[in-house]
## 1
Amino acid sequence: MKRTMTCIECPQGCRLEIEADGSRLIGVTGNKCARGGLYARQEIEAPLRTLTTSVLTRGLELKMLPVRTSKPIPKEKLFEAMAAVKLLVITSPVKAGAVIAADFLGLGADLVACRELKKI
Amino acid sequence: MKERELVIVGGGPAGMAAALAARAAGVKDVLLLERDQYLGGILNQCIHPGFGLHYFKTELTGPEYAGRFAGLVREDQGIEVSLSSFVLKLTGKKEISYLRPGALEEVRARAVILATGCRERTREMIHLPGSRPAGVYPAGLAQKMVNLEGWLPGREAVIVGSGDIGLIMARRMALEGITVKAVVEIQKASRGLVRNVVQCLEDFGIPLYLGHRISCIHGRDRVERVSVVEVDEELKDIPGTGFELACDTVLVSVGLIPENELLEMAGARLDPATNSPVAPGVNLTSVPGVFACGNACKVYDLVDSVTRDSELAGRMAAEYLSAGAGLS
């Protein structure tokens, strides 16, 4: 089956022509770089997204700590991950890149801090 | 009045890049003024990924992108960073008055770089009809509320305009459990990046109404619903196409305009349509020795481009200073 897809790897947004058999990629054209081909394969087989959100803090210089998953997680797990993030409160100072929750939800990705936060 | 070699107004991506590049080009003394309590500017609230693909060849979130520069700026002994410092006045002689906690400071700069960013266009600027209830926010303000303050602006939202901030906020609100009813765009194509239409709207099943406009916001104290109508090629309403969407929140994402009050005070010419400085080239203004970079110069799509052009502004200021100009 042929279909089109927009690559979201970078702001160029290449329009990809995809040939796929269910969740098996047969061919892809229209990508201007190698990342587009990899994106198309991943998107057909099991779509992944990096989750970015912010976590409540207490006693730190900002009310919210921006966080991200260390690598993309399955798209269908985004809302489950958001529900788990809402249960977290950060009370200790963190450095940028610090792991907030290792192997978050058992998805193989860590939840990491995107910035430094000190005590008030 | 104390004399400084180079004063940069604004500690966001443009100001930080200009400061570092000016230092690298031989400027000895840089004063960087930032009105917020932190360096990084608007990047602090842009917690989504997508930054740095060109400049760093890797995908970063806004705070991560800002952090890379903020660390370098803080380490540089030749850059004095003054936070919580609000510039009140700039004269054509490059005299700057600014408030910082506990003091009103006045300095004379040999060169000035304005890296003051931009503001959001508001509901009033696009003539969005209807009543004036609570619940109508510029998209970037809502972004600050959600990402920095931890507040949700409402429960059911409609977004006016398909600029990138609006698209990013559609996803952000959807993730936070707000029902995003629609993004309504009067033009026939999205104004934002196509990747944002895909990953922010299609991923979450949020409808994008192209060629539609909000014809009325309803509600007395709080937004209750909006009327939407399809428009033709001349942007005139097409009769019989109207429908209503119940919502308690309307986000307005209809573009940005450079913030250049200081430049205007200094007597520089601004383009009345775009609010950009009228000048023969990027980063220049009509006042010698006063430069404008980043979104204060023109509104950019990518922060990577802001960094690149602002580094150039830093070098331009260094060249101006090394020619002996600006000495009083």
## 2
Amino acid sequence: MEPLILVVDDEKSIRSFLQISIEMQGYKCIDASDGSTALMLATSRNPDILVLDLGLPDFDGIEVIKKLRMISQMPIIIISARGHEREKIEALDAGADDYLTKPFSVPELLARIRVILRHKMLENTTVEQESQIFRIRDLLIDIEKHRVWLADQEIKLTPNEYKVLVLLAKNQGKVLTHRYIAENIYGGMLTNDTQSLRVCMGNLRRKLGEDPSKPQYIITEIGVGYRLVDE
Amino acid sequence: MKISKKHTPDKERIYVDHRFSLMDKDQVTHKSLKMISILIFIMLMCTAVSMLFFRIRMFESNIVMIYLLGILLFSYLAEGYIYSLAATVCAVILYNFFFTEPYYNLKVNNPDYIITFFVMFIVGFITSMLTIKVKKERQQVEDREQYISSLYIIGKKLLDVKNEEDLVRISAQEISQRFDADVMIQLYNDSGEIIDRYITGEDSFDGEIDRSACFEVYQSGSPCGRGTVLFGEAKAYYQPIMNMRGVLGVIGIALSGTGNILPTQVAFIELIITQIVVILERQKLNENQKKVQLEMQKERLRADMLRSISHDFRTPLAGIMGLASTAKDNYDKISDEVRKNFLQSIYDDADWLNELVENILQTTRFEDGRVKLNLEEEAAEEIITAAITHVNKHAGNHIVYANIPDEIILIKVDAILIRQVIVNLLNNAINYSPSGSEIVVSLYREGNKAIFEVRDNGPGILQDELVHVFEPYHHNRTNKEIYRKGMGLGLSLCKSIIEAHSGKISVSNYEPHGTIVRFYIFTE
């Protein structure tokens, strides 16, 4: 059965071109123009992905995420206006899985949808046994052996750098907020210590040989967080 | 206004030295006792000298002279009409008692002496009065001089004040120093809120009664507090600072000791209040003038901005509309290839509009002063990478490089805004340099500065254009052909953003050709 995607936006033209693009990919698409219809459809039709615009006429998009998260773990991609970084972080911390900034490009949205669907499929097939080896381009992470190779050359990472890399790899393609990463690496004590995280990421980028004008592995989402590229 | 008047000895003095201003009853009795003993001493001395003269049989008139001298001396010291009267009477009685027949008796045998006594009394009293008057006048002149000079000093100090805060502080300190009192001055704005408040010494003004008294003064515009009918039990005396339109503030004076404020002190305060009011008005006038000027400047900028925005909008909109209508009207006649090109052009124009709107939005936020920097510790290189990734989507054939040092440079900035700066600089570089040009973004540290550079090898900017590029709505006219790609707001917004981060931005030409824009932000 083809995946079902729920698009929520109050702008009719956006809904219509999203519907066309999504259906062209072979997915099914339903849409809603306000928060209450969205919640209703999300619970009754149980879509595979929710694409949610944060600026809704009836209530705050963040509210929709919070309400939905009480009953479901359905992946949510949020769409927000540029400059509303706080809102984005709030939505991600409330449980959204990914975000796009308006105006966004459709191929970008479709790529994000593909990432989420693939993750979902992987989860369904290998529930008991978590993957122990990640391979992204030339990067190879062996979680069992705690070792990392870049183009067959082993690279030495500090424990924190390794933890960040694994965290990003496990959430490949998904943006992780600074706060989320800090909580997972420093265990909640240093969630406001953005400095050490910046330095840690800087060192990690250097060890991965990233070209600052064209990063191959770690994408910096300025003001929000980091993500590991997905293909 | 009722002010107690028990300090009669000081009443006539215009300027009241604080040492005397607080004299109470005990001090008055103490002074009279002292004067009486001086009187006795002087009279004894006069009598003793007269005795000597009498023994060696000098003229009697010399004895009268000695007593007159004593009266004068005492009057000079005591400076009170009652005292000099007492001294004169004393002298006449003593002269009568010791030196007229019959001796050691108040009886008078020779009626000539009655005349002598009478003349002696009149002469003694009149000369003593004159002495007192001369002394008092001299004192008055001195007091007035001191008074004028202190007013002058205060006036001079007040002339130098830069703001209301200084004004309040200096006036309070000056009054406090001259009156030996705790002084509070507070100013109100038009809606009755306290805008400035200064208290010297202890805060004696916070009691319930004092606050009510202060409020009453603000409400009624007439003085009250200690020494007046209203709120007489307050710790301080309150006087309004008023101009024609109403109460601007209140001065509270809490004299140390138990005395009440004197009319002369009130007069002094009133003079200072006049000066304060003049300065406040001057300040207000200045502010208004500045506001008007700023408003005018803003108005002009707004007009420029609207003109520039409509121009910047019309160009891509014309493209979008033209392309869309051509494609619609000739849908069957044009090939798929052309249609695709049309759609791509529409997308590019819309993308450009989007960039434009972003800049306008940020600029208006800056101009309104609504922008609140969302400062965070950021790695400078991440901002550069984010900016390059952003423009790479429409960089076309331009090659964008980044030169990042080994060191991770951390800066406390609003990352979104700094990215916007680099994006604008990159867009400018892309728009103003031919396809295939190289654009380099460099980052390095110089002392406590993180320096960012965006360099292209395009045609550069004409020398006389260089100084204007950061002005809002300025279009680069170096190349007429790419004029349509004007970034009217881009560079001026960059400047606003960098200056909001206490940094600096500058532009220069790069040899042999090209433009280099450099800005820095402090790392600590």
